[in-house]
Amino acid sequence: MWNLLTRSMEPSTNCGGSGIRFPWLPMVLLIGVLAVGIVTTARASGQDATPETVDEQVVAEAEVEVVAEDAAGDEVVETEEVEEVGAVDLGVGYALDNAILFFCAILVLAMQAGFAMVEIGLNAAKNAINVLAKNFMDLSLGAMLFFFVGFGLMYPGSYERDPELPEISPYVAFGGSGIYETVDPERTFSPQVDWFFQAVFAATAATIVSGAVAGRMKFTAYLVYSVLLTGFIYPISGYWKWGGGWLTQFGEFVDGGWTMGFQDFAGSAVVHAVGGFAGLAGAIFLGPRLGRYTSSGKSVAMPGHNVAFAAIGVFVLWVGWYGFNPGSQLAFQGTSDIDATVFIAVNTTLAAAAGAIVAMFVSWVLFAKPDLTMGLNGALGGLVGITACCDAFSNYWAIVIGAVAGALVVGGVLALDKLKIDDPVGAFPVHGLCGVWGCMALGILPNAHLESESTSLWIQFVGTASICAWSFVTMSIIFGVLKMAGMLRVNPEEEQAGLDISEHGMYAYPQDSAPGGAVSN
Length: 521
Description:
about 525 residues, mainly alpha, Ammonium transporter fold, two-stranded antiparallel sheet, about 60% helix, disordered N terminus, NH4_transpt_AmtB-like_dom, ammonia transport, RhesusRHD, membrane
């Protein structure tokens, strides 16, 4: 019954009638990355001292010392019982910080469902399964790649290294594969929850692109993109800011730290602009969907098949953002910490609300009717804009940040339409333009970072431009190579039939497989 309802029984003929379309390139990339990670881990393990664990080594050294002293006839020395480092109780505060960060990571992970619903709702019914497959694999591939490669590239300083080695490069460095280990009794977080929180951020950056390339990109090409972005591109630029790279090294070096640096609290540029500019590159190289523009260049609207899905998706994303922004406070047990956390949550709420209102009313003025989809994207634009600066602006300025972001979304959608760049869900206006705005606002409007002179307009411009250019240029190269190899876009017949049946051999809705029951769009 499942096959009859959801899967086409006709073999694919896209590879000379063989019916087989094996995704060899993404599999080669994935296997290669995993192999490198496993080899790196094995070499690191081979360098570990014997006994195998730090605890056993400490015990062994203590026993050798006692035996030596007894043999020498020295007086008896009382030895303290060696306590296992991993068994040390770090207190309720440690447990609270880790529990809240874990919960915030779950909220961010749930944003994948929100992105999927927004994209499904704003696209044709015949591409729904393709959307779900892309979003699902963004998370799955992203988790694997970030485990073996990405985290080590983004946070190389978290791993133990030989002190005699040269200092870590501020541009690109690799600390190791897998999750780092620590025996520091004053640590704030478990390395496991630290990795988990960062991994779901990486998956978020990857899935932004899905909406911009919807309806015409080969699934194999998308997997190649997803592997490279989550495994390499996002972690490298993320290291520049959050891993202690060159974007944190401005001003003077005083007491072991730099006095100035690029500010991006939770990732307007590091996460969202990376995804937005990668999506712009993909949309440009793919070209518009069939029928999106007439031969004379006139724009033809292609409304989504279920705006209700899109609206529910935005609600899910809005809730998930309370893991994204407040969770980035990274400390919750003290009075000042929890005050900052809820302050960030309120700023996030106000910016989203202002973005939705402004986008809705601007569209009302321009189109004579209030456009719900513009309002939905306006809310997302406000959320993206405040992400960089939710800790630094007052509540009133947060409203301004969101309002400007809402206007930018509408302007960005219209600008792309004029340029004939087809972005079905508005991914670039929401994540690219509003991501840039959030970071630049820190150098323009009065806020805590400008008052403390920890950043400047120039520093914010350098950081924002560098991250956006890195994403756009690297992804343009990748999409360009895929296009030259004929691997980027499906053929017109497949696009017309829909990616659900042409790429996956399945229907999202049972009625589509019944004679006369297909959805026209």
